[in-house]
Amino acid sequence: MGYDSNKKSMRSQQQQRITLVLSAVSLCVVIFLIISLLGGESSSSKSGTAPQGGKSVTASKLMRMRQAGLLQQEQGGEAAPADGVKPVAGDINDHKAAHKKAAGRVMTPPVQKTDQRKSEMPPVLSKMDTPEEQAAAKKQSDLDAEVRSIKATGVIMEADEHSLEVTGRLQDATRELIKLRYGDHGDQNYRIKFDLEFQPTIPDFAERGKDGTLIVELAPISLIPVSVFNFLEIARTWKKGAFHRNAGHVLQAMSRSEVTRSMPFQEYSKEYPHKKGTIGYAGRPSGPEFYVSIEDNSRNHGPGSQQKKNPYEADCIIGTVVQGMEDGTAARIHTMPGREFIGDKKKWVWIRRMHIMVPDGRGGYVELFSSPDVIPAD
Q1: Under a CB-based contact definition with an 8 Å cutoff, are residues 231 and 263 in contact?
Q2: Handedness of CA 343, 202, 199, 261 (dihedral sign)
Q3: CB within 8 A of 194, min separation 6: which ones?
Q4: Has residue 324 got a pLDDT over 50?
């Protein structure tokens, strides 16, 4: 009887141990399932069920991230170096779908095949996608209209106290809008890169081929912000254009973009005259056509140069060519067959594409935006 009693006691202890182990395992399974369910709900809320306002980062925020270098390694893709300008990271595909239908899109270069010449219109950098930018754009637009109405009266604005006060307010509002739309880079200037295409009519086509580049550093916005903003908008909405005038003192280009009006007033600073290599807006009133000065045009296009009644008025100026004057690109444009305005499109030098470049904070520049790669069929 003692042996049987001990045996039963051992069996009872074994059963208790098994029961405890099974209970512990069951508890672990239950805890694991609870954690899994909670984790699935959390990831689901992050991936697609967030409120409309939290679905995508705004274009302005992405722009600032890109300028800060935070998006340069996405997908590990880099654009090939071009003309000494630092390459830009690949497209921001993570946000492409979210921004395709958004009112404001990120200014990311569209993917282009080597033989593709036409594509859809480019996404805009930031189409008033924040209340702050919307308010700044409205203020700038209202002041632009006010300045145009003053200009229409024929008053000599450069010598009129009221005109100077209103144009000063327009300049201040434009500086603020530039910083919101294209980034605040302090005293560093924006740049525009032109992709050119020479046609077989150019004398050295067999030797040098079809491709060429001009890089323009825009003037400081502390001096002439309205002219700079106007050209940034031309580049941002660029459709097509070409150098079609081959004069002795300028190379003039036609400009086709969403900027269709001339400048609101003849913005000019004596600190930034029409020296060789500068770019100015053609005509009085100026723009949107523009020209490269291939000689010092301080007298031809400076104050009082093209009318007697106003000794102060000058062509609006945009910036200076920092690449393309010394390497012979501008001189090559000057070899277009014909002089002055050239009617034969086969002799033009096409501006195939425009790129907006911004300082990268390390002494170089990165591409903020590029227009579609387009050559008109006709």
Answers
A1: no
A2: negative
A3: 213, 214, 215, 216, 324, 351, 353, 354
A4: yes
